[in-house]
Structures are given as structure tokens and as C-alpha cells.
Amino acid sequence: MALLQISEPGMSAAPHQHKLAVGIDLGTTNSLVATVRNGISVVLSDIQGRAMLPSVVRYTADGQVLVGDRAQVSQSDDPVNTIVSVKRFMGRGMTDIGDTSRLPYRFVETTSADGFGMVQLRTVAGVKSPVEVSAEILKLLRSRAEDALAGELLGAVITVPAYFDDAQRQATKDAAKLAGLNVLRLLNEPTAAAIAYGLDNASEGVYAVYDLGGGTFDISILRLSRGVFEVLATNGDSALGGDDFDQRIHCWLLEKNQLSALNPKDTRLLLTLARAAKEQLTEHGEARITAVLSTGELIDNVLSQDEFHALSKNLIQRTLQPLRRALRDAKLDVKDIKGVVMVGGATRMPQVQHAVGEFFGQPPLTNLDPDKVVALGAAIQANLLAGNRTGDDWLLLDVIPLSLGLETMGGLAEKIIPRNSTIPTARAQEFTTYKDGQTAMSLHVVQGERELISDCRSLAKFELRGIPAMVAGAARIRVTFQVDADGLLNVAAREMASGIETAIVVKPSYGLTDADITRMLQESTQHAQDDMQARSEREQMTEANQLLDSVAGALAQDGELLNLAQRADIEAKILMLEAALQTANQLSIKRAMTLLNDVTVSFAQARMDKSVTRALAGKNISDLEHK
Amino acid sequence: MIVPDLKFEQNHFQLFGLSPCFKLERDQLERAFLALQSQIHPDKSAHLSDLVQRIAMQNATRVNEAYQTLKSPIRRARYFLLLQGVDTQEETNTVMPIDFLMTQMEWREAVIEAEKNRDLVVLGQLESRIKILTLELETELASKIDVERDYTAAAGMVRKLRFMEKLAEEISTAYDELDR
What we know:
The structure holds two protein chains of two kinds.
Chain A: E1 21-26, E2 30-37, E3 40-43, E4 53-54, E5 56-59, E6 65-67, H1 69-72, E7 82-84, H2 94-97, E8 107-108, E9 120-123, E10 126-128, H3 130-149, E11 155-160, H4 166-178, E12 183-188, H5 189-201, E13 205-212, E14 217-225, E15 228-237, H6 242-256, H7 264-280, E16 286-292, E17 298-304, H8 305-329, E18 339-343, H9 350-360, H10 373-385, E19 395-397, E20 404-408, E21 412-417, E22 425-431, E23 441-447, E24 457-464, E25 477-483, E26 489-495, H11 514-558, H12 564-583, H13 586-599, H14 601-616, H15 621-626
Parallel strand pairs in A: 1-11, 11-12, 13-18, 15-19
Antiparallel strand pairs in A: 1-2, 2-3, 2-4, 5-6, 5-7, 8-9, 9-10, 13-14, 14-15, 16-17, 20-21, 20-23, 22-25, 23-24, 25-26
Chain B: H1 12-15, H2 26-40, H3 50-71, H4 73-83, H5 98-116, H6 120-148, H7 151-179
Helix pairs in contact in B: 2-3, 3-4, 4-7, 5-6, 5-7, 6-7
């Protein structure tokens, strides 16, 4: 007997087969999916040939979930249920979002046991977490890829802003899991762009990637040499992007027209027009904005390029601070930078290109499509991670963007792993008890650069219990921080002195617990089952009605073929089926249909005989033979 | 797929095939590091089982830690001395030459002053002076370790370098604060 061959999960029995893997750029404004085909990275388009999927999700009253252009068309009509730029809410609490009055959503503040929680949105289809909304976008891209590649995906590389903190990364990974994707790696967006750019141009030297997306800003400094992409430093602002430029124009419109609080519909309308004006100002000297508000008020303003530049000046200034910090952390000077790669749609704005060129003393590189370069790079990395041999191999060394630490006495943060540490990395620190007989210790994990805990992002609070009672200072509690290749943190604590080990693994408070994810997965499977159930119910009802119609027709036409008892029997079963249809109970409808079918078998036979007799009447044998 | 087996009992120098000393070729260290990471990095096994991936993460973590330790002069010296059984006693030994401590105090005050006055020029001057002094200390340290093999004196120099490192960190924080 042949032995069973057991292969590694994901390793097919045929080792040379090309494994299907994609790169997904889950953007604030648009999302894309790309893959490597015949050695070339290509963006996958929808049937209409559109590569970019607007990152918009709409929930309708009848339970539909619309994604992309289908959702975007209704963003002004149904702003509350049409979620735009959901990326801004990933792993974020209410206080992170700031002024919610300028956003047309109904926010729900949630609190977990330790007082933190990711915001949620109340829609017509219920309360939705940003993770669930993002998962809808990923699901659509997944099915687009599976259709285009005609097969199931081995996995995906999902890109995240380099400056995303642990909670935001965890939320992104959770969304991918919820969309049924196997995450090969979370990849930093500027790094993905550097891969696409570096491999394309066979570049060597130190490069800066300036990535201004719809809602996030990253700067990464990388050294490219002999097939190695080494991130030296990264910095940024995870709440700064093209959307903020729209907001500036929006505010300008409000001021110009002396408008105060607008309803959600008008807010969305003006934001949409603001974005269109911003895009127009990239190539034109001025943009005209006209609209009729729901109050009947007419908006008609002209915004000049100069005015827009003045409005957005300090937004651009805000990107220069992280530039200086990244250079300092990399211990480099502006003159060490060989080239500046521009990424993200917002870098199309001439004032951005001008400011970046001035800062680095050289014109930025704009030869790659700033909207697609991240997805293309992610696909190249996905192909490598899937184990498809490409001949040339490269090594990617990335870093964590923000320091990780613990709260110590007096509300101060003690850094355990400093920012810009190459990942994966781990660091252990020992702590002790400060009271005699102390058996528990609470640990507060934070991320950020500031000294005060209150200025850092709180990731998790947990308690280490069961420390054997000892005199103060005798216990040795070793806390280990481990950051994996996705940039995600795991913390474990262990009491060393007693030999009794207690280890726990924490997840950020702003993330979802495994139980949350399981529940969401169950709900979405349940939802799919409900859909199937509903469809089969509808189909069955149609069938039952068709049966009733045909029996009624037959009775009218050939009723004389039945004796009184037969007729009564059929009519009784008709009534039974009609009653069952009223109850809408699938099982009783099915039973009544079977009964009606049974009692009409002999009737159908009689009708068949009659029609054959009728057809044969008046015809002779020779006619029949010629048929 | 064969997972390269890292010998965890090897010290950092052995891991990279380097002879243990303070003064080492940066290029050689970097080449050895990249050669090792090219084999064991988690990206090489992202399509394999969870177990294989976990081993890869541990191996890569170990190699990163060793590289970071050897790359930084102060960390390298501290590690080298530890291998020789010499504790640098940075937390416990506070006996320092008076003039060294005085200079440290003056510099600290100067950094705070520059931050208060938002004076980037003075901050830059302080930064380069500290950089030069650090380099001088490192040269001296190299001769104490590699030539004289005077590890007790070397431990004292590591303690001095720790002061310089803290100053550099304070300057960096000051820059961050001024940029805010």
C-alpha cells in the first residue's frame, strides 16, 4: 500500500505549480488588487475595466451591501449608510477622530472591559465595526481576483501605512481574516512602493518614499543594495491625507457662504465637490464650485490655485516635520538621498511636489503611477511570499514606526522597543513587586514617543495574577515584547523567581478579540445562509403557485374526466396547499405540494390519454408513418 | 523546505563568523548579517506551516538582536566585556571623575536651555561636539579592549559612553519637541 503523502498547508502536491497570490492596497479613498502574471505585476480590473475600487460601502434597508462605485453614487443621497474613508476609523477610538460633526455618520462609542474601544457606525443594517466595513471591500477584491485568476487564492499581502500603530494593523489583519483571506504579510505602503520602484529601475542607494494618501501620510527612508531593501527609518501621520485638503476647501465654502451646521446630505455633497475642485486645480488655474443645497440655497464659488495653496500650506508643512525626524533617525542628511519616490494620489497636487522638491533639493520621481505603485509592489512581494520562484530573490528588512513601552510609576512610559527597530524583534524587561505579599501586578502596554502615558496610544492593560506572596522586590516578573514580521506585538509576562510561570498574550484594546472575529464570521456565514434560505423559499413559492395554476387550468379544461370523489380529493389538496402558502412554512408547503402532485397523477394520465386520442383522431396510419 | 538551524548557544560573534574583538569591519558584519537573514527571514517561509513560520520569526529575531548589538559600539563593548565575565555596572557603579560629571551637568543644562530658547543652531553645535567626543571615547575604548586588554578600564569607559548616549537621546528628544 502506498503511503499517504502529507504536504505542508498551502504547498500543493505539484510543487512547480504557480501559486495564486495577490497584493491588496486597502486605501482610504480607493482600493486595488494586483498580481504577478507571467513575471509581470499587473493591477486586476473589474468587468468595466476599472482598476480602482472606491473604498465606499453602503448598507441598504433591504440588507444589501453595495461596494465601490455602486455605493459611491449614493454617497450624497444616503450619507449615513454610505461609509466613505473607513480606513480613518480603523483601530481608532472616539477621541482620535476629533470633530465628528463634520462627518455624516452616526458614531457609536464602544467600551471594552478596560475602557477603550474602536468606534462603530450605526447604519440601517445595524451597528458596523470599521473592521466589518473594510472586510466588505476586501471581499469584493478577493472575488475579483479569484474570477480573474480562475482559482482560489493561496494568500494576500495587504498594505498598511507605515505609521499605522499596533491597533490599526491588528484591525486591518482582522478585516482580511473576516474577508476569508489568508494574510501572507502586512506590508508597509512605502516599502511596497519601493519594491515596485527599485526592482523596476534596478536602483541602488538611499531613497526616500513620500506617500501622501487619502487619509494617511508616510515617509520612509530605505537603502537599496544588492537585492536588499532595508528600511532605515520611517515616520508619518496616520491622520493626514488628501481628505484633509478636501476638508479645507469644504471649510472655505462654509465660510464664503456663511453656512453653519449642514445636514449629512449637504455635508457629503460639498465634500464631494471639494474633492472634484481639488483634482481640477492640479491642472487648472481655478475651479468653479456650484451646488444647490437641500435648503434651496445656491452655492457658486470660484477657487483659484493660489487661494488653494494658501489654504493647504500648513497641511504640507505638517508633512515636513516627519521628514526631518525620519532623516535624523536614519542619521542622514538631505544630501544623502539619491531620489524621492512619490506615492499616493495626493502627491499629484503641484504644491506638494514643489514643497518636496524644495526640501530635498531635487525634483521628486513621478514616473510611476502614484495610485497603483503600492498595489503593484504588494503583488510582487505576495508572489515571493507564496513561494513562487522568480529567479531573482530579494530580502526586505522593515521596522516598527513607533516605540513600544510599559507604564511605570507616575504615569510615565518606559520604552521597551524603540521606534525604527528592525523586525522581527523581541525585548524582555524585568519588573518586581513593590509591596510585601503582592500577588498581582497590572501592566499597561503603550505605543508612542512621548514621555507621558496620556500622550501615548494605550494598547492593552492586563493583570498578571498568581504571583506567589513574597517580600517586596523579591518577585522577578519578566515581560517580553515580541514584534513579528507584520509589525504586530505580542506581550507575555512570566514570574521567574518562584519557578511558577504564568504567561499571557495580549491583543490591543482597540482591536477585536478572537471571540469578536468568530462572531462576525458566524454572522456573515449565517447571513449567507439566510440569503440562500430566502432564495429557496421564494423559488418554492413560485413553484407552488405554478402548480396551483396548472391544476386549476386542467380542472377547467378536463374536469369531466374526474369522478366526484376524485375531484373532491384534488380540491381538498388545493385548499391545503393554499393554506400552507399562507403560513409560508417551507416544510408544510413542500408536503402539500407532494400531496397535490400525488392526487393529480391519475388525472394527468387521463388527460394525456385524452390528448393522444384527440391528436390521433381522423388520421390514418400512413400519415403517422410520415411524421 | 529545510529550516536552517541556528545554534542558539553560539555568541553573537560566532553567529556571524567574526572573531570577538571591539574593532570590527562594519562591512564584514553587514555582509554576514544579510547572508544569514537571506536564509532565515520569515518572508522565506510565509507559505509554510505556522510552526515553521514561528521558528523563522525566532531565528530572525535572534539574528536582528545580534546584529543590533554588534553594530552599536557601546552595546558591542558591553557585550564583549560580558563574554569576558566583566559587568559594566552601569546602574550600580556611580563613581565617576568629578570633572567628567561637571561637564555632563553643563551639557545637560545647555540642551535644556537650547530647547527653551528654541535655538536649533546651539542644539546642532552641542550635537556635533558630543558626536566628536563619543568618537574619541570609542577610539580609546578600542585600544583598552583590543590592545591593552584592560577590561576594568574598558568598563569605566562604557559607563562614560552611556552618559554620552543619554545626552544624544536628550538632544534627539529636544529636536522632536521643537518640531512639534
